[in-house]
Amino acid sequence: KVYCPYPRCSALMSKIEVLGNAANAFAGPQQVGARKCTKCHGLFCLNCKVPWHSNMTCYDYKKLNPYQCAEDAKLKSLATRKSWRQCVKCNHMVELAEGCYHIYCRCGYQFCYTCGAEWKNKKATCRCPIWDERNIIHNEHNQGRPY
């Protein structure tokens, strides 16, 4: 399924509907991926799911517009303030509450929480410390919570 990227429309279209309609595709190397919404007829990029970015590759568009909406920028700002990290493989946000800095993401990717370097064969590829005592020392009377 594909949603129209225009907020006033947001029509839900099947990929078959969007890809199968020959009149929907545009010829020429500059417009690969350009499609028309079946409801509002607005042009959009099938590859990046955003309004059509003419004369610009998807890569260039994403460099100039890293956030598709204001909420993305707000989340990134919150993540920076809270020192969250983002998995480079699946983009899942991770918060270290306790334990070592070796992160095993839900997608299976392993990385250093401090610098983001990949772990290979269960070993760090960076020189960052593996833990901070404040994250691993627990008080028996504190029911497993860090000091």
Automatic annotation (TrEMBL):
A molecular-function term among this protein's GO annotations: zinc ion binding
Keyword Transmembrane helix: no
Species of origin: Davidia involucrata
The name this protein goes by in its record: RBR-type E3 ubiquitin transferase
Keyword annotations of the record: Metal-binding, Repeat, Transferase, Ubl conjugation pathway, Zinc, Zinc-finger
InterPro entries assigned to the protein according to its UniProt record, in alphabetical order: E3_UB_ligase_RBR (IPR031127), IBR_dom (IPR002867), TRIAD_supradom (IPR044066)
EC identifiers of the protein: 2.3.2.31
Record-level GO BP terms: protein ubiquitination
Reactions accelerated catalytically: [E2 ubiquitin-conjugating enzyme]-S-ubiquitinyl-L-cysteine + [acceptor protein]-L-lysine = [E2 ubiquitin-conjugating enzyme]-L-cysteine + [acceptor protein]-N(6)-ubiquitinyl-L-lysine
